[in-house]
Design a protein that fits this description.
The complex is a heterodimer of chains A (166) and B (118). Chain A is mainly alpha-helical and 166 residues long. Chain A is 73% helix and 2% strand. In chain A, helix 1 packs antiparallel against helix 2 and helix 2 runs antiparallel to helix 3. Chain B is mostly helical. Chain B has a single domain, classed as Helix Hairpins (Orthogonal Bundle). Chain B is 72% helix and 3% strand. Classes of the chains: A mainly alpha (166), B mainly alpha (118). Strand 1 of chain A pairs antiparallel with strand 1 of chain B.
């Protein structure tokens, strides 16, 4: 058990535990904070896989921008534990059973997938560095990149139109 | 290539499955629209992690097959980048819709969103 494996299991446990806390916290603000912990653990996984660009983008875009937006909306609506709507116990249990069945199906499908001898390269390989990704992004994928700017523009216009008072 | 720098892909697949199913359970069991939205983000991130792991697996397979150029697997990571772009746009519109819903019915409970049923 070397340092990479220890880091992998540590980050996995942190990610799964904080994801469970996201869906079990009564207070929405705590859910947001636990989701930020999950995103940091996933960024740690990206660094372990030597995908540094995606790790930084994940922290900046998700933990930085998107989660702050969530937190801002929750604070704006002044939600707290007392006003938090809850489903009844049987519906919750049914949801958990359905999710567990999906987990079972996925794991059973994985057993038959024949990926036993495949391994991911950890802590080496330079395809995740910003130089290689940028070269590919601005040559092969330059058209989707420009189209995504139009997507952002339309999302911005849409958010303003939806959010403005009539 | 020495053995110690590789991680079985099954570990990553199992981790992503676990995160994805936690997201599914969250969507099914919560009534707060914002928490449901956050669980969707969690599922997106589980899939992103799996895509990055598969891209590294692909890179290793290409390296073992003798590709010294080493650009195999880049497209997987760019796909993750585009997923993040689309997710950011989706969050801005989705939160605007939730704010509008709160302004109209003074709640973020998804059970009140049944106007199409009646």
């Amino acid at each position: 058990m070397n340092i990479i494996q220890i880091l992998f299991w540590f980050l996995s446990v942190v990610a799964i535990f904080s994801a469970l806390m996201v869906i079990t916290s009564k207070n929405p603000v705590y859910s947001v904070l636990w989701l930020i912990v999950t995103f940091f653990a996933i960024s740690g996984h990206y660094i372990l896989l030597n995908a540094q660009f995606l790790a930084i983008v994940n922290i900046i875009v998700y933990a930085g921008a998107i989660m702050v937006l969530f937190l801002f909306v929750i604070m704006l609506m002044n939600l707290n534990k007392e006003t938090e709507p809850q489903k009844n116990r049987w519906l919750k249990m049914a949801g958990a059973v359905a999710g567990g069945c999906l987990l079972l199906v996925f794991v059973a499908a994985l057993k038959g997938a024949g990926l036993k001898d495949q391994e991911a390269m950890v802590n080496e390989g330079d395809i995740g560095l910003i130089k290689n990704l940028g070269k590919e992004l601005f040559t092969t994928y330059v058209v989707p990149f420009e189209i995504s700017s139009i997507l952002f523009l339309s999302a911005m216009v849409g958010a303003v139109v939806i959010g403005k008072k009539e | 290539m020495e053995k110690k720098n590789n991680m079985p892909i099954n570990n990553y697949i199992l981790l992503s499955i676990a995160l994805f199913c936690i997201g599914i359970v969250g969507v099914l069991t919560r009534r707060n629209a914002i928490i449901i939205f956050m669980c969707i983000e969690l599922m997106l991130n589980a899939v992103n992690l799996l895509l990055v792991a598969f891209s590294k697996m692909h890179a290793r397979a290409a390296l073992l097959a003798g590709d010294v150029n080493g650009t195999a697997g880049t497209d997987g990571q760019l796909f993750v980048f585009f997923i993040m772009v689309v997710a950011a746009a989706e969050v801005s519109v989705g939160l605007a819709i939730i704010v509008m819903m709160y302004r109209n019915i003074h709640s973020v409970d998804v059970n009140f969103l049944n106007r199409l049923k009646h």
